[in-house]
Amino acid sequence: MKPMLLDELYQILKNVRVDNPICQYTPQKCALLLPYINKIRALKEKNNALVLAHSYVHSDIIYGVADHSGDSYELAKIAKETDSSIILFAGVRFMAETAKILNPHKCVIDPNPNSSCTLADSITEEDVHRLREKYPHHTFVCYINTSAGIKALCDVCVTSSNVYTVVAKIPNDKIFFLPDRYMGENVKQYLQESKIDKQFLYYHGKCDVHEKYESAHIDLIKNNHPHTMVIAHPECKKEVVQKADMVGSTSQMMRYVQQHPHKDYLILTECGISSRIQIENPQANIVGTCMLCSFMRANSLPAIISALENPSPSQIIEIDKNILIRAKTCIDAMFSYGS
Ligand code: SF4
Asked: What is the pLDDT of residues 72-92, one digit of tens each?
């Protein structure tokens, strides 16, 4: 990756106009960030490192240093195919773990000093053992937002981009889904509406960011902007999802906006995707508020530099071999459904 010029960086990032100053870029802010960006670009080349960035991290990471950005599913597929010897994952811990599970012989680095996720942390391995004893005939489906240890105890992994199709395709008519309660409610509703007859149970975890969206937000925006297209993530509540014009993962949202040249969009997910839409689809007008995930936003350019130069033991992903093999079986089951 060749060094970036200040004007090149600013011309990209100036398009972010969401209402949160944390997301916005001035020429002065770009000038402060540029030395970090160019240092990372040089380190990547020197170390043969690939940088993957989730769409919820800061735009300077996505447009300054990432080789690929997207949702968990897209990035998991790229991690599976890369030739790079080091994978640095700017996201949260379960994402870096997923990259390691798919590349056990590569060095996978998580630069994030606070890479928790309220959703992934809402269930423990003891909880899954207890549930499997209680529901021995159910297929256990876990969302990708789970630790390697939880994946190792489940049968099939899903992401927000494929959860509906994979659950529908699973041959067992008894399914236990974990950990997201709201996604569980949304999938159950989809199965009912599609007349797919399954006993579908789900756990009560939740994401603190997506939980904050209420259907009243949609009503308020629609009152002032009646032609607004509402796009929601399936981690939102059922009453929110039911009022949305489109429901999908962050990458599906990006594609939807590209294909539907409407003017006003209300995007009900972490604000990073609104920034990406403003940069990549400047014709779209984003209305509504900007909700941030503090865990994703803990990723920073200085943390990426120190992780590439001299990663601490806590930044290098290590997974017990037996857990890794079982978790990989769970993820491979997802890929086998071809979604
Ligand atoms: S937005 Fe929610 S689900 Fe995504 S990383 Fe943050 S806490 Fe976890």
From this structure: 878 888 988 889 989 999 999
Does residue 176 contact residue 168 with C-beta atoms inside 8 Å?
A: no
Give the DSSP letter string of 143-166: ESSS-HHHHHT-SEEE-TTTHHHH
| Parts of the chain with a pLDDT under 70 | 339
| CA-270 nearest atom, ligand 1 | 1
User: Rounded distance, CA 143 to CA 146, Å?
Assistant: 6
Q: What is the pTM assigned to this prediction?
A: 0.94
Return the domain boundaries, the chain.
6-115+296-315, 120-207, 210-287
Query: What architecture does CATH give domain 120-207?
Result: 3-Layer(aba) Sandwich (3.40)
The CATH number corresponding to 210-287 among 3.40.50.2300, 3.90.700.10, 3.40.30.10, 3.40.50.10800 equals 3.40.50.10800
Interaxial angle between packed helices 301-309 and 27-47, expressed in degrees from 0 to 180 and rounded to the nearest 10: 20
Pocket of ligand 1 (CB under 6 A): 92, 117-119, 145, 207-209, 270, 293, 295-296
Q: Are 43 and 304 in contact (CB under 8 A)?
A: no
Give tens-digit pLDDT for 155-206.
Answer: 999 999 899 999 999 999 999 999 999 999 999 999 999 999 999 999 999 9
The CATH class of 6-115+296-315 is alpha beta
